[in-house]
């Protein structure tokens, strides 16, 4: 069977799908993976064929629209307005590539694009497909949309509110992006509203972190995380190895692909918080959220380090709560401190705190050296929190989300 796996976005949005593509290839199926040039190396040695796009995710996330999007916080309308401007070229290329590559494919694995463009054009191609997503989008009375504020369980009509948040997000995404792509790229009259996602829907996170609500349909599956491990022979940079050996376990701080209008100011805030908490720190600068200039001696900065190698060696992990970084921190079994910037990051931040594996999150717009220092002190000194994080990490390491997702998708494709 010839399987096409789509992806898109920053590394955290791409790496889980690279793991899935490898899983299909390992299962004996000729697999192709649509990927940006910067992330082709994720396929090294796998036999998966790379279908390389010339889109540049880093350049897009450095735009003025992206900076406004990062500053949207928990405001879903502001986020989606700027998100639509950034995502439009990605969707145009993605839909065009999808139509072109489908001619040689027997089955499709769709990333988050399937939420936005809908499924009518894909159904028209007559090729079996499934959606594979890193966060939940299926409507439920038991939990709000990942973009909607959560309400306490005692609030009257909470179930109706939760379903309304799912409807509102679907409608907003479709109005901003989906209608355009039905009309312009798929040459189809747009439906009046967003349609349901296809069966099956595979969610790439652990049921121990976010259990599936009881009112989800049977074709929706939470498979476990889709991890892609670093090479077994990975060796850290000498300066990192020396820093780790020179003292107690440090605290990781990194915000991935999140950009910042003032990376120097953000870095000074983080360094001050680490100093107040009495901790050493490893800063991973990522795509512009932090700076590597003028750091104190108790802080080391690097541009990138594999999370699966680094996080188990940390005392705690301060991160933006993107789905990929959250999964790596949980797997490592260390407490996590959420600093969500926008979108589903608030959803994962709430879960870290609710599970007792991290203190209450501090949204980026409210971040100060004082509140971050308090959170770091809690995460590094609370024995119960560390025990819960270690136990959850052990459960997650016992799952095989890639194997489960591949099994379920193939079962659907081969009907």
Task: Give a short overview.
With 415 residues, this protein is an alpha/beta fold. Helices cover 44% and strands 12% of the residues. Helix 1 crosses helix 15 and helix 9 packs across helix 13.
Any overview of this molecule?
The protein is an alpha/beta fold. It folds into 2 domains: about 1-225 and about 400-415, 3-Layer(aba) Sandwich (Rossmann fold); about 240-395, Rossmann fold (3-Layer(aba) Sandwich), CATH 3.40.50. It has 15 helices and 12 strands. The strands form 2 sheets. It has a 7-stranded parallel sheet, with helices on both faces. Strands 10-9-8-11-12 form a 5-stranded parallel sheet, sandwiched between helices. The longest helix has 27 residues, at about 75-100. The protein is globular, with a radius of gyration of 21 Å. The model has no long low-confidence stretch (mean pLDDT about 85).
Radius of gyration: 21 Å
What percentage of the residues does DSSP assign to strands (E)?
A: 5-15%
Low-confidence runs of at least 5 consecutive residues: none
- Count of DSSP strands: 12
| CATH domain class of the largest domain | Alpha Beta
CATH architecture of the largest domain: 3-Layer(aba) Sandwich
Total discrete domains? 2
The overall pLDDT average reads 85
Shape: globular
What's the arrangement of strands in the largest beta sheet? Answer: 3-2-1-4-5-6-7
The name of the CATH topology of the largest domain is Rossmann fold
Main beta-sheet strand count, sense and barrel state = 7 strands, parallel
The number of distinct helices, counting runs of at least 4 residues, comes to 15
């Amino acid at each position: 069977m010839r399987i096409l796996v789509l992806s898109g976005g920053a590394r955290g949005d791409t790496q889980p799908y690279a793991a899935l593509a490898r899983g299909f290839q390992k299962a004996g199926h000729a697999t192709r993976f649509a990927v940006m040039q910067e992330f082709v190396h994720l396929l090294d040695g796998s036999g998966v064929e790379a279908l390389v796009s010339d889109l540049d995710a880093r350049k897009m996330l450095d735009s003025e629209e992206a900076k406004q999007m990062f500053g949207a916080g928990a405001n879903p309308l502001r986020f989606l307005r700027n998100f639509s401007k950034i995502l439009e070229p990605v969707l145009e290329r993605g839909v065009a590539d999808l139509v072109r590559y489908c001619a040689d494919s027997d089955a499709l694995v769709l990333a988050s694009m399937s939420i936005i463009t809908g499924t009518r054009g894909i159904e028209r191609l007559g090729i079996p497909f499934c959606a594979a997503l890193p966060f939940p989008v299926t409507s439920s009375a038991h939990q709000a949309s990942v973009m909607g504020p959560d309400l306490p369980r005692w609030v009257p009509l909470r179930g109706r509110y939760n379903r309304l948040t799912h409807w509102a997000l679907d409608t907003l995404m479709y109005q901003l992006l989906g209608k355009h792509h039905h009309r312009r790229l798929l040459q189809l009259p747009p439906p009046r509203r967003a349609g349901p996602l296809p069966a099956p829907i595979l969610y790439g996170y652990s049921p121990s972190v976010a259990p599936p609500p009881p009112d989800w349909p049977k074709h929706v599956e939470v498979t476990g995380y889709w991890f892609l491990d670093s090479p077994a022979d990975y060796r850290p940079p000498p300066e990192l190895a020396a820093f780790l050996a020179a003292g107690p376990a440090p605290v990781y701080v990194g915000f991935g692909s999140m950009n910042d209008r003032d990376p120097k100011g953000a870095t000074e805030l983080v360094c001050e918080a680490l100093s107040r908490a009495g901790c050493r720190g490893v800063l991973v600068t990522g795509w512009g959220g932090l700076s590597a200039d003028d750091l104190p001696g108790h802080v080391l900065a690097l541009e990138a380090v594999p999370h699966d190698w680094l996080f188990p060696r940390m005392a705690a992990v301060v991160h933006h709560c993107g789905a990929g970084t959250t999964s790596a921190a949980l797997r490592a079994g260390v407490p996590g401190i959420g600093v969500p910037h926008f979108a589903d990051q608030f959803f994962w931040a709430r879960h870290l705190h609710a599970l007792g594996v991290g203190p209450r999150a501090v949204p980026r717009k409210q971040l100060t050296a004082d509140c971050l220092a308090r959170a770091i002190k809690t995460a590094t000194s609370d024995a119960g929190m560390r025990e819960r994080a270690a136990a959850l990490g052990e459960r997650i390491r016992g799952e095989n989300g890639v194997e489960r997702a591949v099994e379920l998708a193939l079962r659907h494709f081969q009907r």
